[in-house]
UniProtKB/TrEMBL annotation:
Keywords: Cell membrane, Membrane, Transmembrane, Transmembrane helix, Transport. Residues 25-441 form the Major facilitator superfamily (MFS) profile domain. It is a multi-pass membrane protein. It is found in: Cell membrane. PROSITE patterns: MFS (PS50850), SUGAR_TRANSPORT_1 (PS00216). It comes from the Bacteria. Pfam families: MFS_1 (PF07690). This is MFS transporter.
């Protein structure tokens, strides 16, 4: 879609025309992809290292206590997601992006000089705020730029950059830790990422709220759609883009995205379970792999395989969802995640765990950009930022749920039992999507 707003009247100064579409906004889109890679790198700097740091430096042995940093990250990130969506709709996208990067600057220094585990938890609170504000905003900005036709591709590129950077930085951090120790070398990566991202965001990134306003102006209801009798229930039509009203309150948007709207709420629960698996893996996989007495470099490689396949796979799955639709990819992806976790739970060495983490990454790649595309399909451009924020609140609460569930089950029944629990939850999530979600894009799109 390459659409410019109608013009008329005298113009006192040259104005850059606003157009929707990936080709028309290629330079800005590429910059946002680069910035989101730096967002992912901030997480990757610590994923391989912190569980090992907890045991070897701070002497922590209880899994539930070790996972506190993941829970702190997930809770603060989920809250920051909500404010990112609300503030980006109210004040613009770029200011939120800049504030998010300011929260990132102290994180590597706190991890380098942390005298106690409490400092690590506090650093992850700041990291959660950084991730919620920056990642949510880059998602919304890319959806703004590309318009309705290429949302899946846009989200695939966005998430591939972010989680590809998680994988690469996890691998680099593992090698740096093996060669130079657990501190400070791995965390110097994060310091560089934060400084570079602030430069790119402040100098080169442009505001995209005007693109959302243009799409809203072009967002016309189907002629046969009747007004909603209940202000919380939206009219629907048999079109790929439903005629959702623009004048919803924040409370209505929260209710629709969380519970009432079948596609949005199904996406929210699937997102939560997806990140439950990621949160559990973040705290648990390095410890599980260490039980086989694998060297740190091999543990880093195993952990990098999961987000690496996840990141690269999204280059295919995001665009694929634009061609074949969203629902079946999400259902199959959650089922594949469940099967992958079974493989990991049964494993006891590098080979089996490598197969399991590759399958887990593939299942996640099928789900991650597609869920965001569903939100973009259903939400009206006027409140898209808030809908994305609410969805990401639920999705990123999965970090905390995974950390707590994994820690409790691991302490009570062992590390393998915690992986089995996550496999069961993923299977239930796949079933819920299959039963409740409707197709939101393509020729099979329908509206309940």
């Amino acid at each position: 879609m390459d659409t410019a707003p109608p013009t008329g009247g005298a113009v006192s100064a040259p104005v850059r025309p606003i157009r929707l579409g990936l080709g028309a906004n290629a330079a800005q889109f590429a910059l946002l992809v680069a910035v989101n890679a730096l967002v992912g790198g901030m997480v990757g700097q610590q994923q391989t290292v912190l569980p090992l740091l907890a045991q070897s430096v701070f002497g922590l042995t209880g899994y539930t206590f070790i996972f506190t940093y993941v829970a702190a990250f997930g809770i603060t990130k989920s809250i920051a997601n909500y404010f990112a969506g609300t503030f980006s709709d109210r004040y613009g996208r770029k200011p939120v992006l800049l504030v998010g990067w300011l929260f990132a600057l102290p994180v590597p220094l706190m991890l380098i000089f942390a005298p106690s585990w409490g400092w690590v938890v506090a650093a992850n609170v700041l990291l959660g705020i950084n991730q919620g504000l920056t990642w949510s905003t880059t998602v919304v900005m890319k959806i703004d730029l590309v318009g309705p036709r290429q949302r899946g591709l846009a989200m695939g590129l966005n998430e591939a950059a972010g989680y590809g950077a998680v994988a690469v930085t996890s691998l680099l951090a593992g090698y740096l830790a093996a060669d130079y120790g657990l501190r400070p070398a791995p965390f110097l990566l994060g310091l560089f990422y934060a400084a570079l991202a602030l430069l790119l965001s402040g100098v080169f990134i442009r505001e995209t709220r005007g693109h959302a306003r243009l799409e809203a102006a072009l967002h016309k209801a189907a002629p046969h759609a009747a007004p909603a009798a209940n202000p919380g229930v939206l009219p629907r039509a048999d079109t790929a883009n439903p005629p959702l009203r623009a004048d919803l309150t924040d409370r209505q948007i929260v209710a629709l995205t969380s519970l009432r709207e079948p596609a949005l709420s199904s996406a929210s629960q699937a997102g939560l379970v997806n990140n439950l698996n990621f949160g559990l893996s973040w705290g648990l996989f390095p410890l599980l792999f260490a039980t086989a007495h694998l060297p740190v470099a091999q543990i880093g490689l195993l952990f990098a395989l999961y987000p690496g396949v996840w990141g690269v796979g999204q280059l295919v799955t995001g665009a694929l969802s634009d061609r074949i639709g969203r629902k079946h990819l999400i259902t199959a992806g959650m089922a594949l995640q469940s099967a992958a976790l079974v493989v990991i739970a049964l494993g006891d060495g590098f080979g089996t765990w490598a197969v399991g983490t590759v399958l887990l990454g593939a299942g996640t790649a099928m789900v991650y950009p597609t869920l965001l595309a569903v939100v973009g399909d259903v939400a009206h451009p006027a409140w898209r930022g808030r809908a994305v924020g609410v969805y990401r609140v639920w999705r990123d609460l999965g970090y905390a749920v995974g950390a707590v569930l994994g820690g409790i089950v691991a302490d009570a029944l062992g590390l393998h039992a915690a992986v089995w629990a996550a496999a069961g939850v993923s299977a239930v999530s796949a079933t819920l999507v299959a039963v409740r979600m409707y197709e939101t894009h393509g020729p099979e799109a329908r509206r309940a």
